[in-house]
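User: Could you check the structure of this?
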Amino acid sequence: MRETVLPVQIEKLARRVVEENSALGRTIVLAESCTGGLVAAALTEIPGSSAVLDRGFVTYSNESKMEMLEVQPDIIEALGAVSVACVWAMAQGALKHSNADIAVAVSGIAGPDGGSDLKPVGTVVFAKAVRGDEQPESEMKLFSSANRAQVRLQATVCALELLLP
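Assistant: Sure, the predicted structure tokens are below.
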């Protein structure tokens, strides 16, 4: 019997993230919005994850993004929480408020409501920040045929992939 509630694909990917980052002595911080802590949950399913995961921030509301991660209000007002600028600021804020070497941030519209013509349901943005590296790595994805659960699971997979060395 499996000892996790997570899909096998996520469990295997989380195991790789923990093992490969542990081998490098690299620690992780997460800034999650639409995934609601699923990325952290995936990592903590893996024995030995405490050597890798420093902490996670679940910043679902705009206020929490501003308060906990120091995302500037003008970013959210001008571009929205589901924007490359916002997740990049979230990743930078997560690094600032942690001891981690690498941060991944995720924000999106899981649905079924909340989408627009510019940002339809299924739009998810990701950012990866490495301490001491000023070059942002970010991407926007559209999981257009997915329901809420599928959007959140696919976003979790993408976030985990960004954490691979």
